[in-house]
Design goal:
Layout: E1 27-32, H1 37-45, H2 50-56, H3 65-72, H4 82-89, H5 91-102, E2 106-107, E3 111-115, E4 122-123, E5 127-130, E6 136-145, H6 150-154, H7 159-172, E7 176-183, E8 187-194, H8 197-216, H9 227-236, H10 249-284, E9 289-292, E10 295-299, H11 308-314, H12 316-321, H13 331-337, H14 339-344
Parallel strand pairs: 6-7
Antiparallel strand pairs: 1-3, 2-5, 3-4, 5-6, 7-8, 9-10
Helix pairs in contact: 2-7, 7-8
């Protein structure tokens, strides 16, 4: 385990808009914002933070309990990408725009906070929110989201950022928190969340037990059905070619039977879905929209995948005119000349043979 850095009392730091920072009701400063990056990573690995909570509960689209487990044990599951970089760069803009539009004063937090009673419960909030006198009263989380997620944000706060905000209230002790999202690059939406004591108690209890079992004691989390976990496991271990893992026969038979049952139900559901969709298409006919009065029931528009092969066969001259050469990775050559590098970036695929054990 990584050595834990001892918490220190929360202290005042320069604030935005002339505000004066005060101590969070139930937290202390664990690490100042200007601490070296390696210390920040050490503190993050030795506790549960706001971005971990939704993943632990299985309510994050991009991370699951296994991701958190690997991260805390020194095996990072995330590499920085452009979206994350942009989100970090425009955090200040989103915060400032929120303050301007809402009239709620904001202040820079001093760094990583730790709960006064639970030294594993930590949080890095994006901004403090203050009252008219500059006293810190809550927190603000800033998000940058695509236009495709507009519906999710108009109706409220999606699960992951909502839980992150509730976690901030749980650690810091504030009575409320805000989540502001810049959606599609041109629309700011924000919501206020009130402190829920039952939620606070549940999160501290559940995450505390999870941390003790899976981080302190080191037990792997149970398997889950999250797509993000499946993707992670396909890339987690370096493959030992032709190596064999011995599995207990009773467990193997049980898993194979469950796998076969799920595949059969999946096939039956796929056939049932095709039947329902066929009936919808027959009712729609040559039209694009099917309505019940003024309300759209469903649509059947020509907005699916373009049939490139059929187009080329039907209009070879046009296909030649609109075809351009694009750079492509020669994977066959790479596999032959750099087999180790090729293997490093090839995902694993689970295959279950039909023949029984």
């Amino acid at each position: 385990m990584t050595t834990t850095i001892e918490p220190t009392p929360l202290f005042d730091v320069p604030a935005e808009a002339g505000t004066t920072l005060v101590e969070a009701p139930t937290a202390r400063l664990l690490l100042p914002a200007d601490a070296p990056e390696e210390q920040w990573h050490a503190v993050r690995a030795a506790g549960i933070g706001g971005s971990d909570v939704a993943a632990i509960l299985g309510l994050d689209k991009y991370r699951g309990p296994r991701h958190v487990y690997e991260d805390k044990h020194g095996r990072p599951t995330f590499k920085g990408n452009e979206a994350a970089e942009i989100g970090t760069e425009i955090e200040g803009f989103i915060a400032a725009l929120f303050s301007k539009r809402s009239g709620v004063p904001i202040a820079m937090p001093p760094g990583t906070l730790v709960h006064a009673e639970h030294d594993w419960a930590r949080v890095n909030v994006d901004r403090y929110t203050c009252d008219a006198d500059g006293i810190v009263t809550g927190l603000l989380e800033c998000k940058n989201r695509s236009a495709y997620q507009l519906d999710d944000w108009e109706e409220g706060v999606p699960d992951a950022p909502a839980l992150q905000t509730h976690w901030g209230m749980a650690v810091g002790g504030w009575t409320h928190g805000y989540v502001a999202a810049l959606v599609g690059g041109n629309r700011l939406i924000w919501h206020r969340l009130e402190r829920d004591e039952e939620m606070v108690a549940y999160l501290l209890d559940y995450c505390g037990k999870w941390f003790q079992r899976h981080v302190v004691e080191g037990f792997e989390p149970d398997a889950d059905g999250l797509e993000s976990t499946t993707e992670l496991l396909s890339k987690l271990w370096s493959v030992k070619a032709e190596a064999v893992a011995e599995v207990e026969v009773t467990q193997a038979k049980e898993l194979r039977a469950r796998h076969a049952d799920v595949k059969a139900r999946q096939k039956a559901l796929a056939e049932e879905l095709r039947l329902v969709e066929t009936e919808m298409k027959l009712l729609t006919g040559e039209n694009e929209v099917a309505k019940c009065g003024k309300q759209a029931a469903w649509t059947w528009k020509a907005n699916g995948t373009f049939a490139s092969k059929q187009f080329a066969e039907a209009h070879p001259d046009l296909a030649a005119e609109y075809t351009h050469m694009a750079p492509a990775l020669d994977m066959t050559r790479l596999k032959e000349e750099q087999p180790k590098v090729y293997a490093e970036f090839r995902a694993r695929k689970l295959l279950v043979p039909a023949k029984g054990i």
